[in-house]
Amino acid sequence: MRWIQQLFFKVRAIVWRSRVEREMDAELAAHLEAEARELASKGLDPVEARRLAANTMGPVELIRDECRDARGTAWRERLKQDVVFGARLFLKNRAFTAAALSTLALAIGSTTAVFTVVDHVLLRPLPFPAPDRLHFAVDVSLRGHFDVLRSNSKLADYAADLGIRAFNMRGPDGPERITGSEVSANFFRVLGIAPLFGRSFADNAGRPGAPRTAIVSNGFWTQQYGAARDVLGRQLVLDDVPYEIVGVMPAAFAYPSPEAAFWIPMRLDPRAAGDYWGVNACSTFARLHDGVTPQAAVSELRGWTPRVHAMFPWSMPDSWATDVALEPMRDHIVAGARVRSFLMLGAAALVLLIAVVNVANLMIGQAVSRRAEFTLRLSLGATSGRLAWQVLTESVLLAVAGGVLGTLMAVGQLQLLKYWLPADTPRLAEISIDRTILAFAAAVAMGSGLLFGLLPALRARSQRSTVPGNGGRSSLSRMGTRTDAVLVMCETAFATILLVGAGLLLHSFWSMVHVPLGYRVESVVTAELSPERTTAASLDKTIALYGAVREKIAAYPGVLNVAAMSQLPLSSQVAANTFAIEDHPRPPQAPQFVFWTTAVTPDHLSALGIRLLQGRGFAEADQKNSGPVVLIGRSTAEKFWPGANPIGRRVRLVWEDGWRTVVGVVDDVKTYSMTGPPGWVDGELYVPLTQATVPPQNLALVARVGNDPSAFEHALPGIIRGACGTCAVSKIASMETVVSGAVAAPRSLAWLVGGFALLAMTLAAAGVYGVVSHGVLRRTREIGIRLALGASPTSAGWLVMASSLWQVALGTSLGLAAAWVLARWMESLLYGVSSHDVVSFSLPPAVLITVAFLASLPPMVRAARIDPAKSLREG
Known about the structure:
The protein is an alpha+beta fold. The longest helix is centred in the middle third of the chain and has 41 residues, at 329-369.
């Protein structure tokens, strides 16, 4: 039972500390008084008796510490003393405190902000029940394929969506464009999310004859209907088709995209063979049943492939859907952001390490200047461990203050990050600072404090109780020299890694923005025209509408050319079709050729400035009833007819009987993205809009103007509505803006990592300056002796400079070696640049050595101006 008694006394001493301290003081006073009375009873003077009693008892403060040690609470008193002393010290040395706190706040704030992004994007589970059971079905992209799996799978529930697209909605000022998603009837049930109120889709939603229903997002419900609870049963008219609103989703639901304002049932009609079996636009996912492993579900999925293959209304290649698989839903969603998120976190971590090294250097400088204080405390009985504990406490106190400031800075830095990050970053709207992030910031601050306090604590622990000559200005110790060298090499190595990474990304970005587009973007204005449903369903009506709109636009002063296209370059819309080539026959069971296909009007070459290399362009005579023709890109001609004339060659869509004749070759154009079309695309061709297989639902308008494009941009909506009052107009922008948006992701990553590299270089320069300055301070006596023995001031200055540059050169070499190894992880982020690009690896050493030279100049001048007599006298 003794341990219970001891525990009780410890708890009592902590909870009722003031009372216990008063009792201890009263007991010590009673002992002193009793001893004094006993001495006075022997005939001593009362004053002398009290003095002798105090001497006999010993130092009261030491007795108090021994009592606290016995109670196990002495550490609290020491911690309190150390914290108070450290706070007073930092308030006294304001320049040191400001430098250390600003360095820590910047680094901890940056790291916390970046970790917030990484945590929400990559680490946190999806906001659905049992998210580990959700898997994305790879290579299941046809509605028919999905429908068969949904109806027959015994191991998983399959659901699907068609991504997001814009619809026409009637607004007070005419048609408006609104973004929504077409989903399977069981979409919400498979995700495990129910509407906030109302109901989900019926099981037969999307089937022929089923009622047309819609579920709206919380934001759309609030904005469009004022959060009215009677929204259920109202009609939402989309593309002239009425849908009954049957539910409202919770505010946090934002799948497949935060841009989705509503969800409507995906059409599943086997009679519409083109949509059901021919359009690869379906994203399929599955929720595994309880107890089912992914391996078992994949085995079932692959077992259905040959049976689905046999259901096609036309012949499909034997290789179709042979790569079907299941991957975790979270991995699929964050796949595009994984590398760049970890790259940003690595950059922030390197900046934090450089900051830790810098503050460690500042703390070592403080420890050197406090050598007299430490020596005196050792002489008065303090242990070396007690000094080390004091220094560590001060370091953690400084880190906590830096962590608080850094967390406050992280709030603003996070907003900047969200602004700079590409709009397609997964779960971007969810990113915020919460308790998990605050705990991370606290852990980073505490860890940083222990790291940068370790070396100064070891220095304090090795202190000897000898009286120094003058407050710490002694000759250079070998241990101090090595420590300084290690610090400089570490921060220059970290800075080199960051500069190389930033150089690779910036070089890649430069290569991307300077790649030939195949068209001229200056003075070109674009817009998307979305006609009403009846017009969009008819190619003849669409062409007639374009003629009326073109006439209005061409009449605007300064307009040089007007054209229309089925999709604009760099719009990231998939526009691929399967073609057969007459003189490149393939077996029926082999995959045919996939061509990026764009329907255009005759003026599209002149409007975009695309060069015609061979043959002719489209003419007004290329109509629906004339001979079908196509234009092909230069690379397509070189790939299929190298060294031969492609004019007159013929291709055809696999579901058509008639052949289309190649009448011209045009320059290659960046259509899908700045890096080119997807790897599965075999070539690029254009068809006249009048000979399009299906009427485009939207028309991309392109106008080249000879005067101010911004004025034309503002006037364009009114011009178009003057020709078509029932058409929606959207995406009005200059072609330069379109191109800028296409490089948003690489640009943001390059600038973010570049910003971290610039911060790292600044911190490294400050660190080199601090280390060299402290080195000069410690070597004052040595340099004075050299000068007294005949060394010139210049040689003394270059002694300091040479030491600094040697350390920076060695650190840079280590950083280059590390960057060479790490660069291969960046290959997927680079375009037109090797991961071991010579320029990107050559510039950082030159920059860092130059920066180190400039940072070492002030200490070098100070060393050259040392007075030998004064340094020897004071040393």
